[in-house]
Amino acid sequence: MANEVRIIGLDGIPEVRPGDDLTALILKAATDQDLAFQSGDIVVITQKVVSKAEGRIVDLDDVEPGVFAMEIAERWEKDARLVEIVLRESARIVRMDHGVMICETKHGLICANAGVDSSNVEKIGTVTLLPEDPDGSAEQVRQRIEEATGAAPAVIITDTFGRPWREGHVNFAIGVAGMLPIVDYAGQVDPAGYEIKVTQMAVADELAAASELMHGKLSRMPVAVIRGYEYPQGSGTADELLRDPERDLFR
Amino acid sequence: MANEVRIIGLDGIPEVRPGDDLTALILKAATDQDLAFQSGDIVVITQKVVSKAEGRIVDLDDVEPGVFAMEIAERWEKDARLVEIVLRESARIVRMDHGVMICETKHGLICANAGVDSSNVEKIGTVTLLPEDPDGSAEQVRQRIEEATGAAPAVIITDTFGRPWREGHVNFAIGVAGMLPIVDYAGQVDPAGYEIKVTQMAVADELAAASELMHGKLSRMPVAVIRGYEYPQGSGTADELLRDPERDLFR
After folding, report:
1. Dihedral angle at the C-alpha atoms of B76, B80, B86, B90, nearest 10 degrees?
2. Fold classification of A58-127 (topology level)
3. Are residues A167 and B185, on separate chains, in Cβ contact within 8 Å?
4. Which sequence spans correspond to the domains of chain B?
5. What is the pLDDT of residues B7-17, one digit of tens each?
6. CB-based contact (8 Å) between B121 and chain A?
7. pLDDT digits (tens, 9 = 90+) for B70-105
8. Considering the entire predicted model, what is its pTM?
């Protein structure tokens, strides 16, 4: 049908381990369900499998917490080793209260625990860190899919963050390749002839949120393909989604 | 295909005017493109057409700005009448700087300009206000579709908000009927046996974001139907998406 965007979940991605070839797993899963990649597709991948493939896993037993981490952990009944890793992954603490740490990561992302996550790990007692260069990870998958299939989809890597003021978590884009993450309507006019002033839609975040409808939180469906959406063409990066501190009222 | 969610845009919704029967327009548009509603569908509607149908339109010429509105307007080179309406729609100003007003609406939503919007209006010099009771508006559409077709879809009403820390706008759910807006995974375990602690996904917001991929900002496609997503059953309200002030670090 025209006027239609499809979100297709990729079945059968196995548990991903350090050193695994994630793109090969994606290509195999697509082939197994008779999905041929097309240029114009958007491949949306959860951070968790990227981090695992890239070996961004830390065993808490290997972590020696510092004094600050130990103090925080004692006060809020947390694992000091986990707090230590969160601090190491942070460039800045944005808010810290009631045991919640909202951090700015070295990428400039603002999220709880600097993206350090202890859910959906294969071994209890380990945590995953965010990929070091999510844009680069996305670009690598994109290039590998193009080499293998001739189709060059856009690729988005997502993570699940909370939001100020609102309950519940939502997926956001933390890495982007092969598309612009924002559509800019500046200078265009709406049907009444009024020049549109709110001009920018964060479509990479909207695609990330849409993909989560397929991923689910528990299901083993860490990759979705979105088909039928005409994304803005260009070589964008997830940095474009980060607001300039000067223009941010909620630093 | 299994593992697939479809976002279908409804074509041919005309310019909506106060007093129009929005549900009748939706039913006609669906019939015209051979879309038969099914139970399990989610009908996602932009606030703008709901506000217009409900007559939530103000002509700026009818507004007498107060002293505070005039002072703000002069300082930031804004229209004092517009500022006055924003103040009237606000329960609280959350941040105010550089001419930006982040307001808490009477519904408890936190957004720029309390949802007052001068884009996509039929007549320049008018603005739309948010629906007074977006949950009620959603429920009304839901009931009317059920009466007409026998299928009882969930209904979400959306608006486009900015976010702290991130560039670009995204659609959020401001009204919900026929579903729970949040999926709660509390107590469930992930594949490794680790109990999931980040338990709540704001699926109504994810559905809202997904629908925007069809709406676009300029296109006349204010209604989308999402099919194939198993939303959480229940009678929820958009209030459930609002964080308790006690638990909010960014008030």
Report:
1. 90
2. CofE-like fold (3.90.1660)
3. no
4. 6-52+131-242, 58-126
5. 999 988 999 99
6. yes
7. 999 999 999 999 999 999 999 999 999 888 899 999
8. 0.95
